[in-house]
Amino acid sequence: MSNIRITKQFSFETGHALYGYDGKCRNVHGHSYKLSVTVIGKPITDSDHVKFGMVIDFGDLKKIVKSEIVDQFDHATVFNKNTPHLELANELKDRGHHVILVEYQPTSENMVIDFAKKIKKHLPSHISLYSLKLQETETSFAEWYASDNN
Q: Which PANTHER family does the protein's record reference (predicted)?
């Protein structure tokens, strides 16, 4: 049986600031992110299996990505917890805002690495994460490929 890649797309709104950056993105701002998640595996060949013919049910993949990424990051503001933005983050939290503090500079590159780790932990053993594409704007995106990270 052939390996097949399955892709599901997601979107969410997230704010961030890049502390120490030399351009406009040092300011708190947001993006309408688009995330494409591609997994690879062999379709189920057992005709008695409820998921017969599927690599993974799109709904099952959606549950993983929604709980690990979308529900966490949608309408949140992300800051590197090791920067002076911590004071601003705490002020926003105190005012009831959803703030995420991460161990990294919250660039698309670092976010896609984080997302890959989170998704891989929850995939069934016979399914592998093939790639992620995190689109920050219509013309700018970061990609993660398993083949580049072995």
A: 6-PYRUVOYL TETRAHYDROBIOPTERIN SYNTHASE, PYRUVOYL TETRAHYDROBIOPTERIN SYNTHASE
pLDDT value at residue 34: 98
Rounded CA-CA distance 56/64 in Å is 11
Strand order in the sheet with 29-41: 99-102, 76-80, 4-16, 29-41, 128-137, 140-145
Mean pLDDT of 100-110: 96
29 annotated to bind ligand: yes
- Pull the structure tokens for residue 126: 């016979």
What is the residue whose two structure tokens read 């189920």?
A: 44
Question: What proportions of the chain, in percent to the nearest 5, are helix, strand and coil?
Answer: 30, 35, 35
**Catalytic sites, residue numbers:** 25, 75, 136
49 is in an annotated binding site: no
Question: Is 126 among the annotated ligand-binding positions?
Answer: no
8 Å CB contact between 127 and 41:
yes
pTM score, two decimals? 0.94
